[in-house]
Amino acid sequence: MPDNPLIDLDRYSKSSKVLRVTAYVLRFITNCRNSNNKVAGPPITEEIDFAKLKLINCIQREVFSAEIKALLGKKAIPHWPKLRNLDPFLDDKGLLRIRGRLEFFNLNYDTKHPVIIPKGQFAKLLIRSQHRFLKHAGVDTVISSLRSNFWIIVMRRLAKTVIKECLSCCWHDSKPCSQPVAPLPKERVRSSPPFDVTGLDYADYPSKKCCVLLFTSGVVRAVHLELTESLSLPDCLLAIRFVARRSLPSVKYSDNAKTCNCYV
Questions:
Q1: Residue 117: strand pairing partners
Q2: Is the CB of residue 87 less than 8 Å from the CB of residue 99?
Q3: For residue 96, what are the β-bridge partners?
Q4: Residues 260, 202 contacting (CB under 8 angstroms)
């Protein structure tokens, strides 16, 4: 394998774009070798899969060169204790996979033996792509979904970093601007009889052809309702007869409605 990487991963923010670019690079190499049978058009699924295989192979041989050389020579892995604990092996395509304990379980090959991905830019791209595919899911959901195909070294740490850098998640999880709450008016907190501080407003029911004038006490939150036939001034004055039962308030609150202003 060449010492230089196949693709500069730091230039991309999506794994899908990296795979398409890799597929075009590999197609260019193939067309140069077979000038009589050139391939054109967008990459097909087989080209994308081959690009993923080639890219992972390059990344593994760049990071785990000593381990792969030891496995090819049927020797013990020299270092990387975390990788040694995974009991890795090379499959028929040259990819480094986990042997695991699910050899005889009824699962597909990728789930039983996920591909080992070293920590780095490609691992972040995979996590970011899966995070977006799962509609900005959390860390545990992203890890569980990715481990059906890949075993990324220190995946949880990378997943936390990627999700923390996600702008959509930052906007969604951000706290709203909290304006300091002003103190209540003195009329609302001083001791007074019910309806001594009163607010009133209309509730309109057009389908029933009637209205309700609502009186609420500003201190004890008591409510008094008066049924009216309309929003007119005479009907409002008739509804204000509630003072005969609740006594005349000393403080009245209302909106700017003309009918209610007559009372205030």
A1: 152
A2: yes
A3: 90
A4: yes
pLDDT by position in tens, the chain (length 264): 445 566 788 888 889 999 999 999 999 988 898 878 888 888 999 999 999 999 999 999 888 888 888 888 877 776 656 676 788 889 888 899 998 788 888 888 888 899 999 989 999 999 999 999 999 999 999 999 999 899 999 999 999 999 999 999 988 888 877 788 888 888 888 888 888 898 888 887 767 678 888 899 988 888 999 888 888 888 888 888 888 888 888 888 888 777 766 655
Set out the domains of the chain in order of their start, with CATH numbers.
Answer: 9-172 (1.10.340.70), 194-261 (3.30.420.10)
Beta bridge partners, 200, equal: 215
d(C-alpha 27, C-alpha 30), whole Å: 5
Answer for the pair 123, 108: CB distance below 8 angstroms, yes or no: no
Please say whether the beta carbons of 196 and 249 come within 8 A. yes
Q: How many CB atoms lie within 10 A of CB 58?
A: 18
In 95-249, beta strands by DSSP E: 96-98, 115-117, 150-152, 197-205, 210-217, 223-228
